[in-house]
Specification:
Layout: H1 2-21, E1 22-25, H2 27-37, H3 39-58, E2 67-75, E3 82-90, H4 98-164, H5 170-205, E4 214-217, H6 229-235, H7 240-261, E5 267-276, E6 279-288, H8 297-345, H9 350-362, H10 368-403
Parallel strand pairs: 1-4
Antiparallel strand pairs: 2-3, 3-5, 5-6
Helix pairs in contact: 2-4, 3-4, 4-5, 4-7, 4-10, 7-8, 8-10, 9-10
């Protein structure tokens, strides 16, 4: 019992160490991690706080602080010397709706930065999803070449035994050795491709590269989603790039309003208290600017030009979005159709062909070259199938991205 307890304790330690040394992620988990920890998204969210800071400044009742001025000095006269002083307080007031225009522009700025942040998130999630499915394809191809390498090694061992028995010439051994070496090289290349794909995913997710924690991705490229075109087009109105343009247009219109408000003068009521020749005097007054030269011409001209530009961009983008979604929808369906073509007419016969070729080789009906050609054709077709699975998965991600579903 004591020995069993020690063994169980060691097994638990090994399991914990393994769990700490490797992290597995599904696509949904990778997307969720990107939303909360990706550096690009975190940086974009900070821009929203910057815009809120500008809104806090625009929300102030007075844009300028009170102005306090004063003076003191002696007065010399024949009747006697006295000390006179004066102090005045003034506060500038904006007219013509300047504060309302500033508030509208600042609120639109917050909306624009919020939509821009969502757009950064949308694009990053597209990149994460594409990197993830590319990693799945690399993992799938690695499994394929490892299985092919194992079969090639078995064939090489078989050829060596038959050569030692005098059944086959050295040429067959050399051909089998070349095939095995080629398969092992393809394994290394597939391992490099998978490592590269995982590295790209780690960068997008903001994972610490200084740790020894390895990353494994879980998923199936054979899983395919079904989309309805009308539902996808209905979702396009929620695309953040369209909302960012709309908010920018509102911001430009607010600048035009602010420019027009500068046609009104800035009024500054003043209260003063002074001592003059021993008498205490309280006065009230007002000062104002005369808007002769600066009447907000720059704000109006820039705001109007910006409004026209954004209106054109918004209209063009809306038209392009519809084309994007319909095109992406057709591309996805065509890619899926290509995958289904291989699944229906090519894949079912691959295992049978390899079995028949192996049996024919063992019975002497075909030579080693023919067997290797059949196996190479089988490998290439499975490799092409994996590539088509990847292209269909990427097309699905692109469709969700274009429709605004992925954000």
């Amino acid at each position: 019992m004591r020995l069993r307890g020690i063994i169980l304790f060691i097994v638990c330690l090994v399991s914990v160490a393994t769990a700490r040394g490797q992290q597995s992620l599904t696509l949904d988990q990778a997307v969720a991690r990107a939303r909360t920890r990706a550096p690009q998204i975190l940086s974009a969210r900070d821009r929203i706080d910057e815009a809120r800071g500008r809104l806090a400044g625009a929300s102030l009742l007075f844009q300028e602080n009170p102005n306090i001025s004063g003076g003191v000095g002696p007065r010399y006269s024949a009747t006697g010397d006295t000390t006179d002083y004066d102090i005045s307080i003034s506060q500038s007031l904006e007219l013509g709706g300047r504060r309302g225009a500033r508030l509208a522009g600042a609120r639109a700025g917050v909306d624009r930065e919020t939509a821009t942040s969502r757009e950064v998130s949308r694009r990053l999630l597209r990149d994460v999803s594409v990197a993830f499915v590319r990693g799945l394809a690399a993992k799938e191809r690695l499994s394929l070449v490892e299985a092919t390498s194992k079969i090639a090694d078995e064939l090489l061992r078989s050829m060596k035994r038959r050569y030692d028995a005098g059944d086959v010439p050295i040429l067959d051994v050399n051909l089998a050795r070349n095939s095995a070496a080629r398969a092992r090289a393809e394994v290394r290349a597939a391992q490099a491709a998978y490592t590269s794909a995982i590295g790209d995913l780690r960068i997008l997710l903001g994972m610490d590269t200084d740790t020894d924690e390895s990353l494994d991705i879980l998923g199936d490229l054979h899983d395919r989603k079904r989309f309805e075109l009308s539902a996808l087009i209905a979702r396009t109105g929620d695309r953040p790039d369209l909302q960012a343009l709309a908010a920018e247009k509102t911001e430009a219109e607010a600048d035009v309003r602010l420019g027009k408000a500068f046609r009104w003068p800035t009024v500054a009521p003043t209260v003063s208290y002074k001592r003059d020749q021993g008498d205490r005097v309280v006065q009230g007054g007002v000062s104002f600017t005369v808007p002769i030269f600066n009447r907000g011409q720059e704000l109006q001209a820039v705001g109007q030009a910006r409004t026209r530009r954004i209106e054109w961009e918004l209209d063009a983008t809306k038209r392009a979005v519809s084309v994007e979604v319909r095109t992406a929808y057709d591309v996805y369906n065509l890619q899926v159709a290509g995958v289904q073509e291989l699944e229906r007419d090519a894949l079912p016969s691959l295992t049978e062909n390899e079995t028949l070729a192996r049996r024919s080789f063992e019975e002497g009906e075909i030579g080693l070259v023919e067997l290797l050609l059949v196996r190479r054709d089988t490998f290439e077709l499975r490799d092409v199938y994996t590539e088509h699975l990847l292209e269909a998965a990427v097309a699905g991600v692109e469709l969700e991205f274009r429709a605004g579903v992925l954000q």
